[in-house]
Amino acid sequence: MHRTKVRVVEDALDANNTIAGANASDFERSNVTVVNLMSAPGAGKTTLLERSLEGIAEEGLRVGVLEGDVQGSFDADRLSVLHIPVVQLNTDNGFGGECHLDANMVRSALPAVPLDDIDVLIVENVGNLVCPAEFRIGEDSRIMVCSVTEGEDKPLKYPLMFRACELVVINKVDLLQHLDFDVDRLEANIKQVNHDATVMRVSAKTGEGVGEFRAWLKALPARIAAQEAHDHDHDHADHDHEHHDHAEQQPATA
Amino acid sequence: MHEFDLSSAIVQTVNKHAAGRKVTHITLRVGRLRQVVKDTLLFYLAIVGKDTPCEGATLEIIDVPAVLRCKTCKNEWEIEIPAFICGTCGPGAVEVATGEEFMVESIEVEDEEEAACTAPR
């Protein structure tokens, strides 16, 4: 026996990213814009969907929901009154259940999703502020719900998640009057880790701000299409920027 | 808490490259921004790697600092806290130079000496 060193240099999540790419191709073929909706457990993802998707089909946006949960179909049942396609995806694989959705789990659920009958697919991820941010599922947009009962410092504790999202919905603002919570500080902390994030203040319970979220959702397919056309045009220009190697550089201290 | 799934991803990647050979050592390159807890990763790797070519392999983690770059002034600096803001130009044009890596850098495998020059089919 002798030992051989094998150079690998491969992102350990490449296998997931490859499947995410296959999902993305399927979504593109059916002309579906996909949103990965994430949050901590209990932040109000399902309530936000209940409130914001009601009657949205009549306004011209056909939305479907893929519900990721460790167990049960409680959320899918709640959304069934909306009369939109809702597919339940459980992550319990006999090992206690995954704490996030990965590309392969989403792929396994796709045959049940009527991609040709919808414009937007919202994938409600498992409630968790860490793992979902790391596993791409083939989405066009990543968004999160953060509620005012969670603490203003959450963006600083979970920068991976807050940086991954282009929209942060601050939910449960109706509770602010009862809480010792500085919502401006939360927003400043979000901007500190992700300056480009859009931030909305919403109460899915009272409906405050839900219209703004609904409008954002309705504008999304056109915006993503424009973005993709733009990225396509700039493919060559972007390529030049990707070849910097910083491994040897000594970083300066701020 | 994400270390379990990250361990699975590592074992999957390593076993693919090991192509059936026993793995004795794994070198990873992990960026600070990935928020990976080393001890937890080691703990899970031992569990996930059991009964696979990875079983018993030693692990080495190369830490990659979190380095930001300002797209406006081109300055680069290392951060210890999550503040993605340029001290000179403010927020808005800051990108991550390093710190998001989660790579299998290399592995060391056992080869049968006689079979070493025979390519596996």
In short:
With 254 residues, chain A is of the alpha/beta class. Chain A has a single domain (15-221), classed as P-loop containing nucleotide triphosphate hydrolases (Rossmann fold, 3-Layer(aba) Sandwich).
List the helices and strands and how they pair.
The complex is a heterodimer of chains A (254) and B (121).
Chain A: E1 2-11, H1 14-29, E2 33-39, H2 45-53, E3 63-69, H3 74-79, E4 86-90, H4 103-109, E5 120-124, E6 141-147, H5 154-157, H6 159-164, E7 167-171, H7 183-193, E8 198-201, H8 210-233, H9 235-241, E9 252-253
Parallel strand pairs in A: 2-5, 2-6, 3-4, 3-5, 6-7, 7-8
Chain B: H1 3-18, E1 23-31, H2 38-48, E2 58-64, E3 67-70, E4 76-78, E5 94-98, E6 102-111
Parallel strand pairs in B: 1-2
Antiparallel strand pairs in B: 1-6, 3-4, 3-5
Helix pairs in contact in B: 1-2
Structure description:
- The complex is a heterodimer of chains A (254) and B (121).
- Chain A has 254 residues and is α/β, with parallel strands linked by helices.
- Chain A has one domain (15-221): P-loop containing nucleotide triphosphate hydrolases (Rossmann fold, 3-Layer(aba) Sandwich).
- Chain A has helices spanning 14-29, 45-53, 74-79, 103-109, 154-157, 159-164, 183-193, 210-233, 235-241, and strands at 2-11, 33-39, 63-69, 86-90, 120-124, 141-147, 167-171, 198-201, 252-253.
- Chain A has a 7-stranded parallel sheet, sandwiched between helices.
- Chain B has 121 residues and is α+β, with helices and mostly antiparallel strands.
- Chain B has a domain at 3-64 and 98-111: hypothetical protein PF0899 fold.
- In chain B, 22% of the residues lie in helices and 31% in strands.
- The interface between A and B is large, with 44 and 49 residues.
Tags for this entry?
heterodimer; A: 254 residues; alpha/beta; Rossmann fold; 9 helices; disordered C terminus; B: alpha+beta; hypothetical protein PF0899 fold; three-stranded mixed sheet; three-stranded antiparallel sheet; 6 strands; 31% strand
